[in-house]
Every structure is written in structure tokens, then in C-alpha cells.
Amino acid sequence: MRNYILIFLFLPFISYSQFKDYKNFDKAIKYNKDGNFNKSIKFASKALENSPQWESPKLLIASIYANSKQINKAVSFLLSAYYSDDNINLDGIKKITKLYYENGFYEESLKYAKLLLFKDSVRFHDSREIRMIIKSSTFSIDAINNPVDFSPKNLGSNINSAKEEYLPAISYNGKNLVYSRRLDKNNVFQEDFYVSKLDENSNWTLSKPYFGTLNTNSNEGAFSFSSDTGYSVFTACDRFDSMGSCDLYILNNNSTFNAGKIINSKSWESQGCFSPDGKYLYFVSNRSGGYGGKDIWRSQITDNSFLEPENLGPKINTEDDEMSPFLHPDNLTFYFASSGHVGMGGYDIFISKRKDVLEEWRLPTNLGYPINTFNTENSLIVANDGKTAYYTSNQSGFGLEDIFVFNLPENVRANKLSNIELDIISNSKGKEVVLNNVVFASNSSKIDSSSFEQLNELILYLLKNPDISLEIQGHTDNIGNNNDNLILSTLRAEVVYNYLRDKVSNRLNFKGYGELVPLFSNTTEENRLFNRRTSFVIN
User: Fold this and answer.
1) Are strands 508-512 and 470-475 parallel, antiparallel or unpaired?
2) Least-confidence region, from 67-76, 104-113, 122-131
3) What is the dihedral of CA 333, 336, 342, 343, to 10 degrees?
4) Which residues fall within 8 angstroms of residue 483, CB to CB, at 6 or more apart?
């Protein structure tokens, strides 16, 4: 809750006078400090009876109403203090404008923002804050009049509790959910990771603390999987090896280590996520060299190390804060939260898309109302189907904050991953990916027409990833002559190579291996069937 007392009370400074009822006003201040707001309003009102123009009691009453979200009552006292026929306090009107905007009264915030421009265009025309309120209020009015389809569903008691659950992360195969839970241990609050698995009926099992030694007596949060689940990244604060207040840590085989001084600085680093191709680590930092307070950065991963981070630039980052980066498994759709782009106030969730992985991220789009509201929305993640989204909300549920699931509107969905894409991103670089549906006639390099569906899926992936190079491979079992098998496997690999080469610009080559690289021993017909295959390796 915003503390409007600091905003309103004693601004502007009012000198004391012997005609003012300080006795009742002092009582009002005392009761306000004690949290007895009804009595504070009562005595502040009494103080106004003999001095109806006295601003300080009005500002005190306004602050109490603002903190209790009685916005119109708060504004009535602010207007009485700041606005009259013969005098307008523009600083006060600015505070009214912000109060309306921050609580979702967009018609009113637009009205008073325009009044500021009208009364003092020289002073407010170049004010970024007022210009943003005008743009965002205008956007919000239109968004409310044109709501998007939004039906969030609570994930249930196996995930949520009376405590706070937030920052969900889902594995690329969609079967593991990790999130943060805020715990009270002996009156000390801390964050730990909890994990749930999807059962055979597509229900989330009862969550348990993350296995191993990942959780400590300090805070852990913002977990994220790599595409092959070999590595994960998470945030931990104030550890013995921390380089700043909060650092990024890497989890590998239940072993954790600091991501190092290239990623972590003396500033604040958090909310990391890997790109699906394993080439980049995206994260949030307030380090110097950015565009605002907290910016989104990325570091290229090479030979198990990191290169110097680069800022995502002004299309994504603003003079305010950005957070909660999530790169969808399609590697073309990027979700994040921002308080600096045109939106509905607080943090809104945005989407940015690109045509292929070599293109920069485009200007983001607001996900719309009621996904976004005047409250803070963030921490959105999306499953590999491109439409199933998970996020945190404090709307009605089991406790303070719960995790919800909903289907994204069509226009802000990511691309659904094909089976071939899932196979590619779920395997580490250099590992063979088998084209199970590419079929040839027996002892022939004539390809069956049914093979083209899977090859076309591969083509779509290559078009989105023009920087990837492939080796197309042909393999046989050990039946027949070794040399004949080598020739046949080469011819089959060449057929696939020719089909792809005409449609993509990626660097491709092909090679036949005959019977030299079996997946299984050629001792049974079933094993030999698996060994007769066409596949590829990403170089």
C-alpha cells in the first residue's frame, strides 16, 4: 500500500497561528500515528471547524482516506486544500493527478493532467511524468472499453496455501513447476523453492520443498530452467560468496555456484532466464550503464562461461524499471514487466516478438485489460503450447498471493512448439536428433511422401534460426555389406539435404555413417529398426 501521508501531510508547510485549534489537531496526529484513523479524522475535523481554510488537517484527512482506498473522499479534501477560485496549487493538483492514476481513476487523472498543461504548459509540457500519465490514462480508458478474454483459474491447494506463492517457473516439457513460497520461521520471513510435478491425469501433485540443498536459511527466489534441464538459474541474497545484495546462482546436478563476476556485480542482479537455444542468459540488474533503475540485460554463453552483458536497449528498457523476463521456448516471443512503458499503472506485462533469432526485439505490446490493471502485474510464464500462461495474483484464493493459470488471448500468444522443436531444445548442443518420421523404401534412397511433414517442421525451425548449421546424417543396421550400407546411408542423407537446401539459407552438410554409429546393439530386429535412421546434429 502506498503511504500517502508522506505525500500530503504538511505540504506546503503551514506556519502555526494562535487562531488555529492545535489541541484537536495534535490529537488527530497522535491518533493517526497510533493507527486509530477514525478518531484522527474526528479530531482533524474539529480542528477545521474554526479554521476551515487550514490546510494541514485537510491533508491529514486526505492521507487517511487515500491509504484506505477511499480515493474520491481523499480528493475532495485535497481539492479543498489546493484548488479555489482565486488560487490553484499546481504541485497539489499534480499529486491529485497521480493519486487518481495510481488507483485506476483514468478519466479523472486525464482531466487533471490536462489541467496542468493548460495552467502551466511551459512547466508541464516537457514533464515525462505528466506526459506518461496522459498517454497511459488514454490507453487505459480504451483498454477497459475493449477488454481481452481473461479467465484465470487458481492452481489449487496442491500448489497454493495460506502463505504467499509467487514467481512460478515451468520446465520445457511442462511437467515440473517450481515456485517461491514465503515462510515464517520463528518470526523471520524467508523464501524457499517448492516443486510440483504433473501426474498422468494432468493434475499438479502436492508440492514439496525443492529436494537437495538448494533451500537455505536465507532467501531464494526467481527459479528458471534451461531447455535441456541440465542447468537452472536462481536468485539468492546475502550469501557468503555474494558480490552484491542479490546475485544469480547456477544449479547443476544439485550443486550450486555463483554465476561469477561477469554476471554479478556490486549492484543487484536477479530474475535470470536462459534462452531456449542455450546461447544467452537474460537477467535484471540495476547496474550502471542502463536506461533506468532496473533494466533487462543478457550475456552470451560460450564454453561454459559468460561474455560481458549487453543491455537489451531502449525498445525494451525505459527510464523506469523492467523486470520478470521470460523468453518462450519458441525463442521468438519475449514477455516482461515494466513500469515505464505506456500501461495501466504500476507494473504491466508486455510482449515483444521477433521474426528470427538474428532480429532485435521489437517494440513491446501491452497484454491489455484485465490481464493488466492499475495494480502490479508481473512474473508471467507461458507453456510450450504458446497459450497456457501462469502468473501470480492476490485476487481471491487460498492466501495472500496465489499462482493462477489462464489462456492468453490469440494476439499475444507465442508459437506452439512442434515435436521437432521440442526434441531440439530438450537436447544439448551436438547431440543427435532422430527424424523418426522420415521414411525410405527398403534398401532404397526413395523417400516416402509421409516424411515431408516432419521435414517441413524442421524447415520452419531453421527459418527462425538462420544462424544454426546442421549435419544431416544417414545410418543403417549391420545387415548386408558394409560398403553398400555406407553408400545407402549417404544417399539417404543427401536426399534430405537437397530437400532442405532449396528452402533455407542455413549452412548444411550431409554424411552417411552406414552401420558405424548404432544407437543399440544390432542383436534384435527391434534394435536394428532403431539403428536404421535419418538424423541431424546441430554444429
Assistant:
1) parallel
2) 122-131
3) 110
4) 514
CATH number at residue 308: 2.120.10.30
First to last CA, the chain: 53
Q: Does one domain contain both 463 and 358? A: no
Q: Which residues contact 311 (CB under 8 A, 6 or more apart)?
A: 289, 290, 291, 295, 296, 297, 317
Q: What residues pair up with 433 in beta bridges, in sequence order?
A: 536
Whether residues 201 and 326 fall in one domain: yes
Domain region containing 521: 419-538
- If you average pLDDT over residues 335-343, what whole number do you get? 96
Cis peptide before 370 (omega within 30 of 0): yes
pLDDT digits (tens, 9 = 90+) for 245-301: 899 999 988 889 999 999 999 999 999 999 998 899 999 999 999 998 999 999 999
Residues 258 and 238 in one domain: yes
Asked if residue 127 and residue 180 are part of one domain, the reply reads no
- Pair (448, 300) in one structural domain: no
Q: How far apart are CA 430 and CA 264, in angstroms?
A: 29
pTM of the model: 0.89
The DSSP element (H or E) to which 535 belongs, if any, is: strand 533-538
CA-CA distance, 45 to 494, in Å (whole number)?
Answer: 88
- Average pLDDT in the 506-520 region? 96
Q: Note whether 287 and 432 are same-domain residues.
A: no
Are residues 321 and 197 part of one domain? yes
Q: Which residues contact 34 (CB under 8 A, 6 or more apart)?
A: none
Cell of 63: 492521507
Residue 402 sits in the same domain as residue 429: no
8 A C-beta contact, residue 248 and residue 301: no
The domain boundary residue, chosen from 93, 127, 145:
145
Q: Is-contact 520 478, C-beta < 8 A?
A: no
Name the β-bridge partners of 509: 471
Q: Give pLDDT, residue 331.
A: 95
Instruction: Give the whole-angstrom CA distance, residue 184 versus residue 197.
Output: 25
Report d(CA 39, CA 62) in Å as an integer: 14
Assign 127 a pLDDT band (cuts: 50, 70, 90): confident
Total tally of structural domains belonging to the chain:
3
Task: Give the integer Cα–Cα distance in Å for 284 and 73.
Answer: 39
